[in-house]
Amino acid sequence: MISPQRMFVSCAKSISDDVPGPFRPLTVQQWDRIANVAREASTRVQAALAVLRRTTAVPYPCPHCPARALVVHGGDGQLPAAKCEKCGRTWAGLDTAA
Ligand SMILES: [Zn+2]
Fold it and tell me: Where are the domains of the chain?
């Protein structure tokens, strides 16, 4: 078994020499998991910073057509807006900030 110190030196040398390290290559599943975690982390950071625009379907009928196709967009610091995906009408909120 290799000591932690030797492992550290081996890793540092492989990084500084820009050669593949003493590690096994990642599997496709591991790359996919890393990508999924990175994507979720990005989404959470954007939501925390209020820069992520979200879209949510609402279960109410459009007042102008019989479709139940209303969606609300918001969450990114812009004024929220509701839009009927069927007829295209859009309703924007009022800016109440003083
Ligand atoms: Zn409509």
Answer: 1-51, 53-98
